[in-house]
Amino acid sequence: MGRNLQKGEQLRPVDLARGHGLSTQAVRNYEEAGILPAAGRTPHGYRTYTPLHAGALRAFLALVPGHGHRTAASIMRAVNRGVVEEAFRLIDESHAQLLDDRRTLQAVERALRGLGSTAASGATAASGPAGRFIGPLAGELGIRPATLRKWERAGLVRPRRDPRTGYRVYDEADARDARLTHQLRRGGYLLEQIAPLIAQVRAAGGPEPLEAALRDWHGRLSARGRAMLAGAAELEAYLRERG
Predict the structure, then answer these.
(1) Helix 172-186 with 191-204: angle, nearest 10 deg
(2) Distance (Å, rounded) from C-alpha 25 to C-alpha 45?
(3) Are the C-beta atoms of residues 210 and 159 closer than 8 Å to each other?
(4) How far apart are CA 20 and CA 234, in angstroms?
(5) Which domains does the chain have, with CATH numbers?
(6) CB of 187 closer than 8 Å to CB of 101
(7) Which phi-psi region, left, alpha or beta, contains residue 168 (left: φ > 0; alpha: ψ -120 to 50)?
(8) Cross-strand bridge partners of residue 161
């Protein structure tokens, strides 16, 4: 909020709302959801808040950019219930996910560095009998065969059909496209965003079209990391206020 609050000072819902660009209904909703501690009541039944509630609101809003709304809400509910270890566990899970996403990005970059040689071997494989069926490729990626079929409908993979059985056969180029699609999906990209990237990689025969996407991905991961730091600072301040 825009001024220093004194311990024990009473605040109206509108005071909290104005200080954070929220509606008074949003403040009430946060209280009802357990994100804020329960409000006091005047003799006439009106809600009253304190600087402790303002600290809770600051902590929650600071946690959202790094952890997402659902996790941030769960963290605040755990703190307000006095189950701080549960809040710490949720924070640890978010950090672990961020680390996993960083590793995924590194895997994408490693895959892209090998695109030139993979494309060449894929062209050879496509003209011969080599390839794999949908089940083994899905198992390699840790996804369901239905997901590969969905990607095929979106034009992200283009398996040929075995002339005898009619089964889908994925050559090395298809496997490459499936790996890139899987990794970009984990990076938060939508299928419609991935499709032109895959098409450009096929046409260009190299990773250059993805460089801008990778820079953006790096930037978003860094922003999440910094947001987690900011959220941790506000949460620590709130924990000190709670005593």
Answers:
(1) 140
(2) 16
(3) no
(4) 14
(5) 13-96+222-242 (1.10.1660.10), 115-206 (1.10.1660.10)
(6) yes
(7) beta
(8) 168
Q: Which long-range contacts (CB under 8 A, 24 or more apart) does 40-49 make?
A: 40/10, 46/12, 47/12, 47/13, 48/10, 48/11, 48/12, 49/10, 49/11, 49/12, 49/13, 49/15, 49/16
Per-residue pLDDT of the chain (243 residues; tens, 9 = 90+): 444 555 557 888 898 899 889 999 999 999 999 999 999 888 888 889 999 999 999 999 999 999 999 999 999 999 999 999 999 999 999 999 999 888 878 877 776 765 544 444 444 433 334 688 999 999 988 899 999 999 999 999 999 999 999 999 999 888 888 988 888 888 778 899 888 888 877 776 656 667 877 888 899 999 999 999 999 999 999 999 998
Structure tokens at 132: 């794999």
